[in-house]
Model the fold of this input.
Amino acid sequence: MDISDIEIESFLEAMDKAYGYDFRDYSPAHIRRRLYHVLNTYGISSISLLQHHLLHDHSFAQKILHNLSIRVTEMFRDPGFYKALRETVIPLLRTWSYVKIWHAGCSTGEEVYSMAILLEEEGIYDRCQLYATDFNQTALSHAKEGIYGVDQVKKYARNYQASGGTADFSDYYYAQYESAIFDRRLSKNIVWADHNLVTDGVFAEMQVVICRNVLIYFNRDLQNRVHRLFHDSLVKGGFLCLGSKESVDFTEIATSYDALDKRQRIYRKTYKS
Done:
């Protein structure tokens, strides 16, 4: 089955007008892949029929939205990144009396809990506030619960140890049936909130902004818009953390940052910007 560009444009326009979710500046390749996945998953034969379901079945529209959003995540994903946070960023965060951290596009929350664990082990969680945002309400609800498949825990534990974890990973959750339920103390300083990077403005003034492996799904114009949003949300001397395939290089605000750890994509906003 082929999907034409016109069909995709019509479908995305319908989603924006009907529900206020604008995917038109996402990478065309990403959107095309996800639409094929939706058609195959639900046995729908054409984009026009999918658009009919979108407009006339609100509950099904939420399933489409869930499939179009980005949900690739895991605890302590890319352990080298978290190790760099421990060794390079945390010592600098200690110089602030209070630290606000924004996890933008937090999906189902695994990386937010990872940060809470890291901050607790480094002894500064009590003076930190984490803001975890996403536009996908289903993902946010999952994140708030802090419950993940027990089959993933071995991988999470390996990541944790490789990231420089100083405790036993099992100290942070208990197993029940087929689920790993993370300790409620980890969520005490987390605020979960609805925020859309495509349409919403500055979230708050932050010491750290973390948005890893989200920008790669946006086209260049939207990437620049979101980079400006992050820049305006950071205090001078604050830190921007991106995914392994993302960079501030060649963006409109590239000169506003110094590379603190270029390999791990950790940047510091200059004091003159």
Notes: The mean pLDDT is 93. Residues 151 and 215 are 29 Å apart (CA to CA).
